[in-house]
Give the backbone structure.
Amino acid sequence: MLNQSSFSASLGILSLAVLSGCQTTNNDANEPLVNQTSIPVESNEIITFPQNEDNDYIASWKLPELPIERLNRFDWQQVGLIDENNIVTKIESEQSLKLDIRPNNLVFKYDCQRYRVYHDSYQDYHYTSYDITTITPSSCLIKDQQVAGDISEYLVQLFPKYGRGHFTFRIIPTSDLLPSFHKLALKNQTSHMLVINTQDKQLLFEGKVKTLKPISGLPIDYDFLEKYKWRLVNAVDSKQENIEEITHSDYPVTANFRSLLNNLDEHQAGFYSDCNGVGGSYILTADHMLLIGSAPQTMIGCDTKREAAEDKIRELEQLSKSQLSLKRLSTISTDNSSLPHYLLTQKLETGETLIWQNEKKKNP
């Protein structure tokens, strides 16, 4: 059982009465942090994710109808919870959980703490949760450690490890919400709400369109990234010190971006150092943010330095978020006189900076 008084009184993020199946909640505050109403959960959904498919074989591999890229365009903030008894819990606190949706992972946010839910497969219209990582930046001084711990414990219950739990997304237009839902008092005038169905709970999130950051350098899009092969020419950590594992001249690191042949809206990134390769699906946002997921890889044995390079690039790139910028150089590429010469700078959320140079792609 989670610490009810700390969790409810400090945040009002979720009612522990709802979480534990109880029917009442006691708070010391003058006004209740949550309002509960028992209603049938119904709506006319204009977008359902995932959608049904009569052919079971197709259902096992069909790509999502509601792309992660679309969901990533919003900053999501939790406004409610529906439990297994259809009890709707309104979340009043301004410190409710926030959510960022990325390839292969959901990032829940509380204060400066981050909880990353990694999911490694999509099958039969469900995502399979695999693991949860709690991320505390070095500069993070959490205001309430008890609440932070309670959130972590609760998310572990909702998203069990190693494929024992499944979840799905769906979008509900706010115009179709039942009257009881309007008590949620949406603040962002959003036209849709996101529902995450997991275990026997439904988490309700309000979306606010992300504010685009100013971009520097030349424009970048999917076609541009996927037109070239990219070779790593420089890599430094947050202290501007050289990252030795991936800057050996004898073991060059390259990156390749591509679209899937059977779905041009699905994009894959791969990183190589003459060994197994590391990669995953990726999203490129309008303000040049690069979000990379994860994917299975081969496990062929390589020499120590090559394995160290791929281990490091995996640590940096998989499940990462980074800012891209591009500039064109006046020099001419030696392998093709007509090839323009670019440098692509990647500044990772974790502080590292990688610089890539374009090369002709042999197999576009």
